[in-house]
Amino acid sequence: MSVKHGLLALLERGPMYGYQLRVAFEESTGGTWPLNIGQVYTTLSRLERDELVRPLPKIEEGQRPYEISDAGRADLASWFATPVSRADRPRDELAIKLALALTTPGVDVRAVVQTQRSATMRTLQEYTRLKARADQEVELSWLLVLDAMVFQAEAEVRWLDHCEASLVRYTSPPASSLASQAQPAGDADTKVEQEVPR
């Protein structure tokens, strides 16, 4: 989720100034995505530049509220109507870490998997505690975010189990094999030609 569309969705409720938007954003996501106030005002400046929001006169406390424009409503409606693509999501650092651990000398890949599993299980337990304490009727938006995090953590544990089972069957290629894979294409072709019987 982009901060831009998060702020537009909040402004659809009614005009708000920066601090109110930050608080409402964090409440809506259950504090799982903390925003700093600078990020809020930078995003508001871009939204104003793109004519998706407009500033209103300052209020008594000196704060300037913003309201969503018709163009902002159209952009927000388009965002809600468009599915999130896997390609739009950040790269999975854990998958990259394990892939690199397999090919980096001296790294105990099983220890990397176990360390991650322990951390993910602790996180899953914390999510479960938070879910048990939440008010089921009042905090539905927070519960939906929390459910998504629970499902992601459970999926990660299952994937780590799969990684561990794969490691049991895995035999690393000899160092010479890895070196030959890194050979320039011309050298590899020459080697193949020499091995072909005439």
Strand order, sheet with most strands: 1-2
First-last Cα distance: 61 Å
| Total beta strand runs | 2
Largest beta-sheet details = 2 strands, antiparallel
Question: What structural category arises from helix and sheet content?
Answer: mainly alpha
Give the fraction of residues assigned to helices. Answer: 55-70%
Spans of at least 5 consecutive residues whose pLDDT stays below 50 are 185-198
As a percent range, the share of strand residues is under 5%
Query: Could you tell me the radius of gyration in angstroms?
Result: 25 Å
pLDDT averaged over residues: 80
Helical segment tally? Answer: 9
The ordered string of helix (H) and strand (E) elements is HHHEEHHHHHH
**Global morphology:** elongated
Question: How are the SSEs ordered, and which strands pair?
Answer:
Blueprint lengths: L2 H9 L6 H11 L8 H13 L3 E3 L10 E3 L1 H12 L11 H11 L5 H25 L6 H30 L5 H7 L3 H11 L3
Antiparallel strand pairs: 1-2
Helix pairs in contact: 2-3, 6-7
Concise structural overview:
The chain has 198 residues and is mostly helical. It is built from nine helices and two strands. Helix content is 65%, strand content 3%.
How would you describe the overall organization of this protein?
This protein has 198 residues and is mainly alpha-helical. The protein has helices at 3-11, 18-28, 37-49, 70-81, 93-103, 109-133, 140-169, 175-181, 185-195, and strands spanning 53-55, 66-68. Strands 1-2 form a two-stranded antiparallel ribbon. Helix 2 packs across helix 3 (37-49) and helix 6 (109-133) packs antiparallel against helix 7 (140-169). It starts with a helix and ends with a helix.
